[in-house]
Amino acid sequence: MIKKAVEKARIDKELDEIEEEYSIEEEREETWFDRVEKLLLEYAKEEEIPGKQYSEIELLQLGLGKVLRNLWNDLKLMDCIFNELDKLKELNTKGQYKTVGYVPKESEDITKIPIYSYKNEPKLESLKQMIANPFFKSLELENIPSLNRKKILIFTQYKDTAYYIYTNLIDWIEQELDLHSWLKDKDKIKVALVTGDTDIATKINYMKRFSPPRANDGWEEVKKIR
After folding, report:
1. How far apart are CA 3 and CA 53, in angstroms?
2. Which residues pair with 118 in a beta bridge?
3. Predicted TM-score (pTM) above 0.85
């Protein structure tokens, strides 16, 4: 019995030494409250009066006050930006802001995001001129090769931007039927949108449509992407 007790004590001692050497003791995970507290204390440093002593509660109150003031200033700035943007939006026949579609609602979104049509949006207007009949190009674009009657790929980093370009092009083509008849196949407009949410079958179909003529019905292009 004594031999077993001594052996157990030796094993426990060795385990304690290993734990101490390699810091096996599990550290407490940082919670969201810890992160908020740390952030408020950082903001409090900007508000402290030199030489004055503060309790931790008072420091948290100082930090929270700083956060609320920053938030209020940001909201006022956003209101100014939105007011200026409203001045650029086109109006429909009812005097309301003209929408050309909506960005699909994500699970965390409260409401759908409308896509507005803006007056004289320079990048979009330049794109339209590049696609349209070269005769209507502005002087600024006269030396840039036209994209008229060609297959075009437009890449953008953000999905919202992709929907903005897509819906505005659709609206433009629908209103310019005679000028852009080459962009229509009977009642179908030949403009498509692909995002990370687009299903695989649709993506493959678009890749095949952009493949070179007689390239094995487009499957060679699909294999390059897979």
Report:
1. 60
2. 89
3. no
Percent of the chain at pLDDT > 90 equals: 20
Q: Cα–Cα distances in Å, from 114 out to 42, 111, 137, 167?
A: 38, 9, 30, 11
What does the alpha-carbon distance between residue 200 and residue 164 come to, in Å, rounded to a whole number? 22
215 touches 221 (CB < 8 A): yes
Q: What is the DSSP letter of 155?
A: -
Secondary structure, 3-state, 13-27:
HHHHHHHHHHCCCCC
Give all strands (DSSP E) within the chain, no chain letters.
99-103, 113-116, 184-185, 188-189
Tokens of 30: 């940082």
Query: What's the CA gap between 17 and 106, in Å, rounded?
Result: 53
Could you tell me if 167 and 101 are in contact, meaning their C-beta atoms sit under 8 angstroms apart?
yes
pLDDT tens digits along 35-91: 888 999 999 998 998 889 999 889 999 999 999 999 999 999 999 999 999 999 999
Domain ranges of the chain: 36-45+55-88, 106-193
Tokens found for residue 150: 């060609």
The number of helices, as runs of H, and strands, as runs of E, in the chain is: 7, 4
